[in-house]
Specification:
Length: about 2000
């Protein structure tokens, strides 16, 4: 059902037009995704997806065709109107008087209808087009308009400028800049927001007769079709918008384009005129030819391939209803997966299909990719000749093309057949069917002849070392089809009459007879690289001919053979054979699945087929076999040290043993810390979890959980398992979550980490049972490395996954996990592509992407290190770096190629492994002294070996480098390990570096010598049994790590990694996931102070780091004593700024900690020394601190003393709450490290070869810490990574994203460089489908919302960037949030200015004084004139005040609310005040830091914000069965008020479920009044008083959910919001009544809201009295009270008193929490309640004593939560201009009017501390752009006509703020002069705490204090009215020199006031004493004049 059908929508402003391209708008789109995630709609739709996505497949739309979609009908219907509702006052504009309002005519009365003016000449300015507009009142007519074509979309539906510019063709009026204005002029008479996309429908063209006629539709949406499947649209393809034909492919227009002919290859140029067929020109255009000059140009075929670079349709993302605020680009239909994705029958062939033609194996292939494919064959069989492999040196790969393919027999092992090309051809035909379902004219698909011809030209342009890619060919087909279709559309849309009718197709067809000749002609220019064979009868003839030529050696130079048989009538048969040795080997090996690859290699090793290769290597060295040389060298060196290298190492080893471990002063471990980006991601994760809880689907009830538990699932790698245990232990998350107490053991951590192997089921069942038994615990199931093992448990065909295959699906996707309401699944991966398919279970709104460092808002998260990932490695190859960090070894590749031709029967992985091991062996021999071996290794391998052996010499600790040798095949890895270990042993290098075999199935094995070296290296490992268990613990160990396994399993590498040797990764890595996974091993963090690049780039990076060094996380940094200048970035103290040369430079991995990121950790296992290493809790709770402290980083204790620890970030504040707990074991920086810092900075300017300093040798790792590792790649992979496609992205990104998925269609747009991670996700969700073996294959979402799992999230980020630390931090803050959900910080402050009779007086005043205490320890002496007040006789247990006794109570003028501690004291005739000291005024910024709060657990009667959801208040929040969700109406309510000078019009937004509270007219449904009950009503089921809550800036945090507070009782609650905030409040509180203030009050303060609430309520009272009087009810019986409540009132309490003593002062009391319903019904039941004007209650405080509650009632000020009698206070108004203290001012006005204010002291209200919104939302800034943001209060006023900087703030706010801070400038005599206060007439303004005021009212018959005894020190006249006269002021006496301040609205009023009040008689004025608020004239500043009393 439709989830949103509002009966009246609020739409403001002009809509956006077309596809918006500006960068700023894209930024807004992306930020709106974050905002929409907090939406509580069923599935929130961010603006981005509304603009760019089609959100439902056609099948889903047809199944749900019964849905009602008002907005769809509004868009599609020609004359559809909005649902009936009162006219929207925000949109309705009355036409000018006397103008024409007839439909079809403009307001000037000119006819605009097309039928009337079609033959009339129309003057169309240049750049304008005539278009037809649809008017709702004339559904059968078009109105002619002239519109600037810049504001219309192009043919692709894009590039329309925002806004509108048009002219009226009737009256000629020009210059309409807004479509709203234009639509009014042409009398469209719209009831909805005018939008040009909706009403400008057609282009208008002139036919052959010159008459203006309706032309094609305006293509507003480009790639999207609005409308149902029957809607006709001629604008473009349903999936791909057409391109501008001006590009190189203009030849597709049908005629050869002259501009393209110079680029045609020489051999192809004669083809055009010779044949007379334009298609030849098409085929020879530069867009088809990539060129062979350079690999950089191999992707030119994709240049300008697609205009659209973003997903255009997403069939799987639609909701069951439209989004909340759907953009008009959102479409409820899109092609079904079957019709738009792949051709019919594709499913049955899925397991044989392959997505790339080159190196992309498919993980789901059932068997070897050879002739065992059951391809369709016909005709006579073809025999494969014997010895084909031996003769050709490669297995030919035959790709089936069109038609029938013959059977093959004979030597089938020497040939490979693949159906990939056939599948590609078929897929390119499917787009026409896709077109038909949209009702668009069906374009002609690419003919088979054209497909084959394009294929030939693609092969021709490939370079000799290039391998064809299926993606390239698919894009060529797409481009060709689109250009052809574009020409058809353009011909149809031509405005000028044509001399001849348009041809059916823009491209003349190629006949089957012409095809062989054209193909041969195209191949004639490629030097026999492509050979064409034409068959007369069948393909069998051509295949036999090809095999004959191969055997005869006539195709030695031929890489591709194209076989064409055109004998059939209307079709052709074809196939393409790859015969080039390089291409055929790569393609045949790439078609093997990973399991088959391992099986093949193992077979070759076991059967001894590699022996011939070994024998060949033994003959390479002229001096004999290498093993003989090794033995000879071993014999010579046995018994003595024969090399300086060995001597140095042994000496160093002896020194280590004898003298202890020397200290390395230049390199140390990184401290563990949370980096800012990790904290940001953790907060984003928390935000997404909250959005799930906030959504209306009720899939997660966070309020029901008390704590958090978790289980982390990882791949079955022992190293990864130990690494994860260490991360979890070191983070302290178990202590933070309360899952363990005190010390954490290894066994306890193991309960939370699950290795997904055969033994995982038992532990997982325990986890599920635990979740069932603890429903109030939220379990987070974390699936790390989530792209691994996506095999379906049912369809397990991927045998290469081993015994662990399918465990993820069996466990994480089981029914128990999906249905458990307390389990949230978090998938974490660096390569999410396989989880982003059309069938994914993860909603796109539940994806969290790691923020890019260049994205908006990231300056808030400054990083001390720069991440160096794949894009940075690629950039290093393009930036002019002397030796790029990404390299390939040309000599190695040349040798591999030569041996591949010599040994064609061996797999290339075997050959590559043998060659590389031989190179390493020769390099070790060369470095050891056998210099003649340098000729038998490569320069690159020699560099690696030299640095590996020389690095330990440069450090006293022996710090060395790691070399990662990646050998995916485990048998080959074992072979390499054995060989290298043997060579090392024969060279006597066992003590110099270690060789480690890393296997996922086993742990690490490190020699005892190196284990001892690791212990001594880091000086902190005392456990004798300790052994390194993770690669991170090999930090600084010189070693070669042979890393095996088909895929890395998440193992992190240490910072000492210097070389990442990936030369052995096989061709199976060439899918995007596998390729990026291999390159991700080298991902690295470098210090942001330096950069791998040289020159200005490095300086730029450093300067950027300087700018970003500030952060709010003030506790990150360790303050170092004695180094104040280095506080800002302590890391700099131990980092060198110099760079090594690329040939000898050494680098180490400069990353964070085990928790900070995934690339490093403290060496030493987590389980040794548990007492010293025991993690600390993450710190005390962060609530109640300053906002800067809230982002406290949780870091556990690090290694014990002896290790310097530094953390980046700013210096901590002195009151840092975590300083002790976080750093109690951190050691101050030693002087040696400071010296090293100075030395490194001074040596940075010296050349690398300069003489070293006399101090200890510099550690090679420290010198290289700013350099990422050097990566060596195979040449094929290097070319793939460094080449770019037409979109500017690396070509590798266009590869198939994963083995387990396949493309949904060959016709898809390419990825774009500008795509964000979110956009890439949407792209893959549209264009990929899972294979049958994928675990998501059976979960077809079909665009339905129930296809996504509601509690499943996906976190993706680059490899090794710190995702583990981020989600562990997320667990911590989630746990703290759950605790916070049940607790709240409330203000806990003692009342101020309290009278205590027991205190003694020091003023010598006869004993009639009491002491008045304030919170700032001041002491006021107040002389009390009433010894025994009448209140003493009130009974303790009185439930209500006695009216007569209460009238006798004196009014307490003194303010006791602690929030007014800084307010001026109010004096009265009851007190004469003296003060000793009241303390210094408090700074405004300290207000919320210093106010004391207390943590309180929420009771069942609390008020809640938007984050609370429970079953009880489900209906209260809008889930009413009788109403549509969020259905509401807008109503205007107007009343007159003389003081404002005009009628006030307010707007109510009333949900349907709340309409019973209001009265509507029977005729038009207009709002008449708000229902009020009777005074005599005694029902206990509802609250009689309507509650009004003014609020601003607190749509999320305001406590508006009063369901529990009211204990479920019926009540009327109205939120009073400003107009500009209405949409966001409506979004978060859709079932609340909104009172929207007029727009003139958008910048007003709380006084305006109070004023309008009161006046509206009184006007409503009068209306109700009139209405109910007709029913026989007396006016005085109507309930006159309303409640005005702050939005922070959270709980209410009552005091129970037991007066058991004989005297009334002896009593006991207790306080308990009660519901607001109890308090309201108690007060409303009070006798004589209508005689009270204001009723309030006490503010809660834990310090409340018997004195406060002894007297049950007080006559004093009331605040925060008041019950207002609008009848009695009819003539007393709030000051609508006030921002501050408006409640105190109103209280004084009410009292002076003789009305009663009553405070119930037994009731109290708790106020929650909310640090956002409220009056803090008012920021005073300068209007000058170059002025600082902060403006001092002294600058709030200035002299009139001065050049003072003007401020952007209301004048009243500036006045109040200035007087609060600087009133002493106006009233110097009043400072600290309580006996002589300032006389304030008719108002209370806060003059600061050191000045007291005396309030008097000038109104007749008002109650004022007796002022005869006062001599005032000043007079304040604020906007005084006519009641203030000269005679009134003469009643008061002033001190000599007293000062006067007169404030008026303008200077004229100021002078008139001085004259009228005769002020110059007693006051002296000077011209320089006139001031004004610092406002511009248009902002209406306030003026004031000061003077001195004469």
């Amino acid at each position: 059902m439709n989830q949103r059908t509002p009966s009246c929508r609020l739409k403001m402003g002009n809509s956006y037009a077309g596809q918006l391209k500006s960068t700023r708008f894209e930024e807004v789109l992306h930020s709106s995704i974050e905002a929409s995630l907090r939406s509580n709609s069923l599935v929130p739709r961010p603006v981005f997806s509304q603009l760019y996505l089609e959100a439902e497949q056609q099948l889903s739309a047809l199944e749900g065709s019964s849905r009602i979609d008002n907005e769809e009908e509004e868009e599609e219907g020609e004359g559809g109107l909005e649902p009936s509702c009162p006219p929207n006052p925000y949109q309705t504009h009355l036409p000018p008087e006397g103008c024409c309002t007839v439909d079809g005519f403009c307001q000037a009365g000119k006819d605009l209808r097309l039928v009337s003016i079609s033959n009339e000449p129309i003057d169309v300015p240049a750049g304008f087009l005539l278009v037809g507009a649809k008017a709702p009142g004339l559904p059968d007519h078009l109105l002619v308009c002239a519109v600037d074509k810049r504001f219309l979309p192009d043919d692709s539906g894009h590039n329309a400028l925002l806004g509108f510019s048009g002219n009226c063709v009737g009256c000629g009026k020009k210059g309409f800049c807004y479509f709203t204005e234009f639509s009014n002029h042409i009398n469209l008479k719209l009831t909805t927001q005018p939008k040009k996309q909706k009403h400008l429908k057609y282009y208008l063209v002139r036919n052959a007769q010159g008459a203006l006629t309706k032309g094609p539709l305006i293509c507003w949406k480009g790639s999207e079709f609005r409308g149902r499947p029957t809607t006709a649209g001629l604008c473009s393809s349903s999936l791909f918008p057409p391109l501008d034909i001006s590009g190189p492919l203009a030849a597709f227009s049908g005629d050869p384009t002259p501009g393209t002919s110079p680029s045609i290859p020489t051999g192809a140029q004669p083809a055009g005129p010779a044949s007379g067929h334009p298609p030849l020109t098409i085929a020879t255009s530069p867009a088809v030819f990539n060129g062979k000059d350079s690999p950089k140009h191999q992707q030119l075929v994709k240049n300008k391939l697609l205009a659209v670079t973003r997903p255009s349709a997403l069939g799987i993302l639609s909701n069951s209803g439209p989004p909340k605020k759907r953009h008009k680009g959102w479409s409820p239909e899109s092609p079904s997966a079957t019709e738009g994705g792949y051709p019919q029958g594709g499913r049955s062939r899925a397991k044989y299909e392959n997505a790339v033609m080159s190196c992309v194996p498919q993980a789901s292939l059932a068997g070897p990719a050879s002739v065992t494919f059951p391809v369709v064959a016909s005709g006579e069989p073809v025999s494969v000749p014997d010895n084909l492999l031996k003769i050709c040196k490669a297995k030919p790969v035959i790709f089936k093309g069109h038609g029938n393919f013959p059977y093959l027999c004979g030597n089938l092992n020497d040939v490979v057949v693949s159906p990939l090309l056939h599948t590609c051809y078929q897929s390119s035909q499917s787009l026409s069917r896709l077109h038909e379902q949209y009702g668009a004219p069906t374009p002609q698909p690419i003919s088979e002849e054209m497909q084959l011809l394009l294929t030939v030209y693609y092969l021709v342009q490939l370079a000799a070392d290039q391998v064809p890619l299926m993606e390239d060919l698919e894009q060529i087909f797409l481009r060709s089809w689109r250009e052809s279709y574009l020409m058809e559309i353009r011909q149809y849309q031509q405005a000028a009459p044509q001399p001849f009718p348009p041809t059916p197709s823009a491209v003349a067809p190629v006949s089957s007879a012409q095809l062989p000749w054209l193909a041969g002609l195209a191949a004639s220019s490629c030097n026999d690289s492509v050979h064409v064979i034409e068959c007369a009868y069948s393909l069998a003839e051509g295949l036999s001919e090809m095999f004959r030529l191969l055997i005869e050696g006539k195709l030695a130079k031929t890489n591709y053979v194209v076989i064409i048989c055109a004998c059939r009538n209307s079709a052709i048969d074809s196939c393409i054979a790859v015969t080039g040795k390089h291409q055929a080997r790569i393609l045949s090996e790439s078609l093997l699945s990973p399991a088959e690859y391992q099986k093949e290699v193992t077979y070759e090793l076991v059967t001894g087929r590699v022996d011939s290769l070994g024998a060949f290597f033994s003959t390479l060295c002229p001096e004999g076999d290498i093993d003989i040389l090794l033995d000879k060298f071993h014999q010579e060196s046995q018994g003595h040290i024969s090399s300086s290298l060995t001597a140095a190492s042994v000496t160093k080893s002896a020194s280590l043993d004898v003298g202890g471990a020397p200290a390395c002063t230049s390199y140390s471990l990184e401290p563990p810390h949370i980096r800012p980006f990790q904290l940001a991601v953790a907060q984003k994760l928390l935000s997404h979890v909250c959005s799930i809880a906030d959504s209306s689907t009720q899939n997660l009830d966070l309020g029901s959980f008390e704590k958090v538990d978790f289980l982390i699932c990882i791949p079955p790698s022992e190293v990864t398992y130990q690494q994860m245990l260490f991360h979890v232990w070191h983070s302290g998350v178990l202590l933070e979550l309360g899952l363990e107490k005190e010390c954490v053991s290894k066994q306890q951590v193991e309960q939370h980490v699950l290795k997904l192997d055969a033994n995982a089921q038992t532990k997982f069942k325990s986890f599920l049972q635990n979740s069932f038994q603890n429903p109030h615990t939220l379990f987070i199931l974390i699936h790390d490395h989530a792209h691994w093992d996506l095999v379906s448990a049912v369809h397990n065909l991927c045998s290469q996954s081993g015994p662990s295959a399918g465990w993820v699906d069996r466990l994480l996707n089981c029914r128990e996990v999906k249905e458990a309401p307390n389990i949230v699944t978090l998938h974490v991966t660096s390569f999410p592509y396989a989880l982003q398919t059309q069938h994914t279970l993860i909603s796109p709104y539940n994806e969290i992407h790691w923020p890019a460092s260049h994205s908006d808002g990231m300056d808030l998260y400054p990083e001390s290190k720069k991440y160096f990932g794949l894009s940075e490695f690629i950039e290093s190859t393009l930036s002019g770096h002397s030796l790029p960090l990404l390299r390939y070894d040309s000599s190695f590749e040349a040798m591999v190629t030569a041996l591949g031709k010599r040994f064609p029967h061996l797999h290339s992985a075997v050959i590559r492994t043998f060659v590389l091991v031989q190179h390493y062996a020769a390099a070790m021999m060369a470095v050891s002294g056998l210099s003649q071996m340098k000729s038998y290794t490569s320069v690159e391998t020699l560099e690696i070996t030299q640095n590996l052996l020389n690095a330990p010499k440069q450090c006293p600790c022996g710090h060395g480098l790691m070399v990662l040798l990646r050998v995916p095949c485990s048998p080959l890895a074992a072979l390499a390990y054995e060989r290298l270990a043997h060579v090392r042993a024969r060279l006597a290098l066992e003590q110099h570096f270690e060789i480690i075999l890393g296997n996922p199935s086993s742990g690490l094995t490190v020699g005892k010598h190196f284990v001892k070296q690791l212990k001594q290296m880091w000086q902190n490992i005392e456990d004798a049994e300790w052994r390194p268990q993770t690669y991170l613990e090999l930090e600084g160990l010189p070693c070669i790590l042979i890393f095996s396994g088909m895929d890395p399993h998440g193992e992190s590498l240490p910072r000492s990694l210097r070389y990442c040797d990936l030369r052995l990764i096989n061709s199976s890595c060439l899918v995007r996931t596998a390729l990026e996974q291999e390159l991700g091993l080298a991902a690295y963090f470098v210090s942001s102070e330096g950069s791998p690049e040289k020159g200005p780039r490095s300086e730029g990076v450093e300067s950027d780091a300087e700018k970003l060094s500030g952060t709010d996380n003030e506790d990150e940094e360790l303050v170092t004593e004695g180094c104040p200048s280095e506080k800002r970035s302590p890391v700099k103290r131990e980092r060198s700024c110099s760079h090594d040369s690329a040939s000898s430079g050494l680098s180490s991995k400069a990353s964070g900690s085990a928790l900070g990121d995934e690339t490093s950790a403290q060496p030493g296992g987590p389980w040794q020394g548990e007492r010293a290493w025991s993690p600390q809790p993450c710190g005390p709770s962060e609530e109640g601190r300053a906002p800067g402290d809230k982002q406290r980083l949780r870091a556990s204790q690090g290694p014990p003393s002896g290790v310097s620890r530094h953390s980046p970030g700013p210096a901590p504040q002195p009151d840092s709450g975590l300083k002790t707990s976080q750093r109690d074991v951190q050691v101050q920086t030693t002087s040696s490290s400071q010296l090293s810092f100075l030395g490194s900075s001074s040596s940075s300017a010296a050349p690398a070869a300069s003489t070293p300093a006399p101090q200890a040798p510099r550690c090679s790792m420290a010198k290289a810490c700013r350099q990422p590792p050097v990566v060596f790649l195979p040449k094929l992979v290097y070319d793939m990574v460094t080449a770019t496609d037409s979109g500017g992205l690396p070509k590798a990104t266009s590869l198939l994203p994963s083995h387990s998925v396949m493309w949904a269609s060959s016709f898809r747009p390419p990825l774009s460089k500008t795509m964000t991670s979110t956009e890439q996700s949407l792209y893959y969700r549209q264009w990929t489908v899972p294979r049958p073996s994928h675990m998501d294959y059976g979960s077809r979402a079909e665009g339905r919302v129930d296809g996504f799992h509601p509690r499943r999230l996906l976190l993706s980020g680059p490899p090794q960037i710190g995702k583990t630390g981020a989600y562990l931090q997320f667990l911590s803050i989630l746990s703290r949030m759950l605790v916070r959900l049940t607790e709240v910080d409330v203000y806990d402050e003692e009342e101020i200015n309290i009278i205590r009779p027991g205190d003694s007086c020091s003023a010598g005043c006869c004993g009639h004084c009491v002491m008045l205490h304030t919170r700032s320890t001041e002491l006021l002496q107040i002389h009390d004139l009433q010894e025994e007040p009448d209140w003493r006789y009130l009974q303790l247990g009185d439930p209500w005040p006695d009216l007569e006794l209460f009238k006798k109570l004196p009014f307490d003028y003194i303010i006791h609310d602690p929030k007014y501690e800084d307010a001026s004291l109010i004096c009265s005739h009851h007190q004469s005040v003296k003060v000793e000291d009241r303390g210094a005024p408090r700074r405004p910024e300290d207000l919320y830091v210093r106010r004391h709060t207390a943590r309180m657990r929420l009771s069942k009667y609390a008020a809640y914000n938007t984050y609370h959801h429970c079953e009880q208040c489900r209906q209260y929040l809008g889930f009413h069965p009788c109403y549509q969700l969020y259905e509401s109406t807008l109503h205007a309510f107007a009343f007159s008020y003389s003081m404002l000078g005009e009628e006030v019009q307010l707007h109510f937004i009333i949900p349907k479920s709340k309409e019973h509270h209001f009265v509507f007219s029977q005729t038009g449904g207009q709002l008449e009044s708000m229902r009020l009950p009777l005074v005599t009503d005694k029902s206990q089921e509802y609250i009689k008083s309507p509650t009004f809550t003014p609020t601003t800036g607190r749509h999320e945090h305001g406590l508006f959910n009063l369901y529990h507070a009211m204990d479920g009782a019926s009540h009327l609650h109205v939120l009073v919001v400003k107009e500009y905030e209405m949409p966001v409040y409506k979004k978060y509180w859709p079932n609340h009544i909104m009172l929207v203030l007029p727009s003139v009050f958008n910048s007003a303060g709380v006084g305006a809201a109070h004023f309008l609430i009161k006046e509206l309520s009184y006007h409503n009272l009068e209306l109700e009295r009139t209405r109910q009087e007709e029913l026989g009810i007396k006016p005085q019986d109507i309930w006159p009270f309303i409640v005005i409540s702050d939005d922070s009132c959270v709980m209410w309490n009552v005091v129970d008193v037991d007066g058991g003593g004989e005297r009334s002062r002896e009593f006991s009391w207790s306080e308990r929490n009660v519901s607001l319903k109890y308090i309201m019904q108690h007060i409303e039941a009070a006798p004589n309640i209508t005689h009270y004007a204001l009723i309030g209650m006490r503010k809660w405080s834990s310090k409340t004593g018997s004195r406060e509650v002894h007297e049950p009632f007080s006559r004093c000020h009331v605040h925060d939560f008041i019950i207002l009698n609008v009848d009695l206070t009819q003539n007393v108004q709030y000051n609508q201009n006030r921002f501050l203290c408006d409640d105190v001012d109103f209280n004084l006005r009410v009292h002076s009017a003789g009305l009663l204010l009553c405070r119930f002291n037994r009731f109290s209200v708790m106020k929650k501390q909310i640090v956002v919104g409220g009056h803090r939302s008012f920021h005073i800034t300068s209007k000058a752009p170059d002025c600082p943001a902060a403006v001092a209060p002294a600058q709030y006023v200035c002299a009139p006509d001065s050049k003072h900087a003007l401020l952007a703030a209301p004048a009243q706010l500036l006045l109040e703020k200035f007087l609060q801070q600087h009133s002493r400038r106006f009233f110097p005599l009043s400072l600290q002069n309580r006996g002589h206060p300032v006389l304030s007439v008719d108002c209370y303004l806060n003059l600061g705490p050191q000045i007291s005021v005396c309030y008097v009212s000038s109104r007749p018959h008002s109650l004022n204090i007796s002022c005869s005894d006062f001599r005032f020190s000043g007079l304040l006249l604020y906007l005084c009215d006519s009641f203030v006269g000269a005679s009134f002021l003469k009643k008061f006496h002033f001190l000599k020199g007293a000062t006067l301040c007169v404030i008026c609205q303008d200077r004229n009023s100021l002078r008139q006031t001085v004259v009228r009040l005769e002020l110059e008689d007693q006051w002296q004025f000077r011209l320089r004493d006139e001031f004004q608020t610092a406002n511009a004239k248009e902002d209406r500043p306030l003026f004031f004049l000061t003077g001195r009393h004469i």
